[in-house]
Structure of DMT family transporter:
Amino acid sequence: MPRLPPLAGLPQQRLDALLLTIAVTGVSLSGPLIAATAAPALAIAFWRNAMAAAALTPVVLLRGRLRAELSRLDRRTLLLSLAAGAALAAHFGLWLPSLHLTSVASSVALVTTTPIWTTLLLRLTGRRPPAAVWAGSAVAVAGVVVLTGVDLAVSPEALAGDALALGGGMAAAVYVLIGAEVQRTTSTTGYTFLCYSTTALLLLLVCLLAGSPLGGYSGETWLKLLALTLASQLLGHSLINRVVRGLGPSVTSIALLLETPGAALIAAVWLGQLPPAAAYPALGLIVLGLALVIRAERT
C-alpha cells in the first residue's frame, strides 16, 4: 500500500500505531466471524479468497506496471507463487473447520504458532536459531500440550479441532517462507493477487469434490462473508504490510499476538463462548512463548 501522509498533523509513527490497532482488530474479528457464519467452513475459505482476488483484479488490470510484471514472471517465481497459494489453501482448509470444533480462543492460539514452525523449517535448511528461540518454542509447546489436554477433557471433537488448528499454523509457516522468497523479486500486490487466485481455485475444487454448497445462503451470511473479506483479508493484512515498514517487524509481530486475546474477547461478548477456566494458563503460555520466539528472532 502507498505511504499515507500524516493526518491533521498527526506524526507518522502515531498514525502507524493507529493503523496497526485497526489491523489487529480486523484479524481478531476473523475467528469469531467465521464461527458465526452459517456456511460450510470450506465454502467460507473459498469465498474469503475469491472475494479478495476479485477486489485486487481491477488494481492489476488498471496498473500497466503490474500487468507487465506478471507477464514477465520466470518459471521459478511462478511455481513458487502457485506453491504459496497451495500452502495458503491448506492453511484455510485446516484452520476454518477447527473453529466449529473447538473454542475460538483455542483455535486462534494454536493457528498463530506459525513462528515456531517457521523456525523449525529454517533449522532444517541449515539455519541455527539462538537458544532463546528454542526456549520460547519450549514454553509455547508446553502451552499447546496443556491446552490439548484441557480440550481432550472437554471432548474428542475439541481435540480434533486443536489438531486442525495446529496443522493450519504449520501450513501458514510454509506460506510465509515461500512468500518471503518470492517477494525478493516480485511486488506484494502482484504476488498477493497470484496467491489469492490460486488459493481460491484450489479451494473451489475441494468444495466441489466435497459437495460443499457455495450458494443458497441468507443475506446475513453473505454480509458476514463480505465483512470477513474486508476486515480480515484486505483491511487487516493490508494495513499490517503497510505499517511494518514504519514500526518495524518486531513491534508489528508482538502486536499481532494480541489476536489471541482479542478473538477470545470478541467471541465471549458476541458469541457467549468462554473457554474452560483451565485453558487460560495454557493460552497465556502459548502467547508468552511466541513473544519470546519473535523477540529472539528479531534481535
Remarks:
- The radius of gyration is 19 Å.
